[in-house]
Amino acid sequence: MQNSASQTSDAPSTAARRSDATRAAILTSARKRFAADGYERATIRAIARDADIDPSMVMRYYGNKERLFAAAVALDLHLPDMSELPREEVGRALVAHFLTLWEENGELTAILRVGVTDPAAAERMQQVFREQVLPVAQAVCPDPEQVPARAALCSAQLLGLALTRYVLRFPPAVDLTREEALAWLAPAVQRYLTAPHP
Q: Which domain covers residue 49, as residue numbers?
């Protein structure tokens, strides 16, 4: 009797593990497919085939392609708390953090690649910018009215490097060491954040 109860209690945890594994496989396939084909051309059928599951399972877990895309590119930049740093070090800390992100997070590179041509991905990047990058600028910018422009200029530097180094792979950008990239970008980002308005 005890054996039967134990087997029954194990069944839900086994099913939950299977469910988690299926979700993970779907998201991995979706990220690769969205990066390769873009939002419009990527299909649920192709994503399911890549994950080696039935397309109905993708629909069961995510409902539609729009929800799947949102889940696949749910990006948390894990930005550090800049309020703990002296203002003159924020630019360097921000660039260093983003260099680490680009080098370790394939999702970010995938959404950048897709975002250049796809409105849904571009909107997702804009949302990340509004929710995660703007607050960093708000914490250190001297002029509250200039926060959006300053944050956008910081993003232009950071995304520009990512595009040339990790997506388009321009040889001179790829050849920069991490320290060289940091040395070039940090002063520019710092200026955008804290210099007086020109």
A: 2-72
